[in-house]
Amino acid sequence: MAYLGVESSLTGRRWVGPTSEVERQSEALVQAHGYPRGLALVLARLGVTPAEAPGYLEPKLRDLLPDPRSLRDMEKAAARFLEALRHRQKIAVFADYDVDGGSSAALLIHWLRQMGLGATLYVPDRIDEGYGPNAPAMRDLAAAHDLIVCVDCGTLSHEAIAAAKGADVVILDHHLGGETLPECHAVVNPNRQDETGDLAHLCAAAVVFLMLVEAGRQLREAGAKGPDLMALLDLVALATVADVAPLKGVNRALVQQGLKVMGARARPGLVALADVAKLDTAPSSYHLGYVLGPRVNAGGRIGQADLGARLLATDNPHEAQAMAERLDQLNTERRDIEAAVRAAALAQAEDRGLDAPLVWAAGEGWHPGVVGIVASRLKELTNRPAVVIGLDGDEGKGSGRSVSGVDLGVSVQRLAAEGLLIKGGGHRMAAGLTVARDKLEAAMERLSEMLAKQGAGQGGPSDLRLDGMLMPGAANLDLVENLERAGPFGQGAPGPRFAIADARISYARQVGTGHLKIACDDGLGGRLEGIAFGAFDGPMGAALMNHGGARFHLAGRLEVNEWGGRRSVQLRLEDAAPAAG
């Protein structure tokens, strides 16, 4: 049954509430620990038992961090890295152009700098060179360096790695590996085919962090000391959230601790980025994914490929300020380009039908730097894997995003092995591909078949999932602070969303461009303010503005609003429905 009887809300969605099993588990959590009901419902939905709850709310990195040596080639990689340090050899870091690649490179550069050694940063241009190592770049780097460390890339780059004659190559990656690995000194990757898969959820920056943990262990065994690794966790947290790695196990602890490090504002690049983004509160996982991450990415998408990595790696506040301002400007330009591609892609996808196992679109000249973001928007809209492709000449370059439980990377890799793609790879939640124009339709049809077998397309695209119901008076600061203890929230651990049932709208007005500010009450003294961004882009804004005394069910997320030195709770309103009866 639809939750609160809402089969079709003002935005056309069906509301889905907690299952009976979640309800029972939440009652057990309340009885065992006295948690507020809202917190208990969220923990139960996340599968946390009463016995696990105290440890879950206070995750300790020392308890959750895996032994780096559980990954193949880890000892070899760290030993070669330290050998280069000891002999003051020339090191190059070849990084992907996204947040994970930039953060991974910055981790190595900061660590080496604290040990008195510099490193060359190389980030390929998305359009001219494409993703990952290429033979000319690797050949040039090998001619001038003793060690090349490839981060967030390289696992499938056999030809390019072979071109690095005269230098050792170490790969620290997390993308799906093939049947064979490149011939190089070491390949550390939890998604190698000969790995157990226990750490498959790590992003590349977390793999780099584990390598630095192993390097620290080897240094201690030799009677030496390395840099403070805890101070580097802000970079690991940023990469984990921005690369949509699932926030479970050690990832959750890395992000939670990394947010604390970031809150201390010690890294010039992240401080400058937060300031240009006008971030005036303590950072949360939301800010990593939707405020800071897109700005770091903007250089790799439509501007200078290495700008994000250089920002994260710099120790110079003035240099950081200039780069952050440039990235902010590029991000604004990126949004404009993205909006045009998104409108065209959505229209095309709607013509094909948004209820298929795969939602896809391809267009002439669509900028390769924004197709991934547009794919993400289509995925969010439809609750289905999405692929968006920019066509140029005889080829198309595209990017895909997946939903929980559907492994897009392995399907794209298989599609390439079957000859329907020129190349393709990725991980569970995201993938990149290159396809011949004359094979586009056949490739997407085959990909749709493969994803359907994994269950893609079975969930309702219009379902809005709710953790439960709250009275306006129960939505207080204590509850929000308790809910934050269950975070960080993101991929694999969606944030809490509640319904305010049968609410009276006591105040409503339009603010900014198409946004709605409201206040509601329950007639019992409880009052809650809310904001709905973009409410007037659809029917919700007008319906609530012109409520005429009618009562509504409201749905959204609770957040702390800080204004004029006052902290209060507000509802980030996402949906509403008339309250019947």
Automatic annotation (TrEMBL):
Gene3D superfamilies: 3.10.310.30, 3.90.1640.30
Pfam families per the UniProt record, alphabetical: DHH, DHHA1, RecJ_OB
Domain of life of the native organism: Bacteria
Span of domain DHHA1: 360-452
Family from the record: Belongs to the RecJ family.
GO terms assigned for molecular function: exonuclease activity
Ranges of residues in domain RecJ OB: 467-575
Signal sequence coordinates: none
Annotated keywords: Coiled coil, Exonuclease, Hydrolase, Nuclease
Residues in coiled coil: 320-347
UniProt name for this protein: Single-stranded-DNA-specific exonuclease RecJ
Keyword Hydrolase in annotation: yes
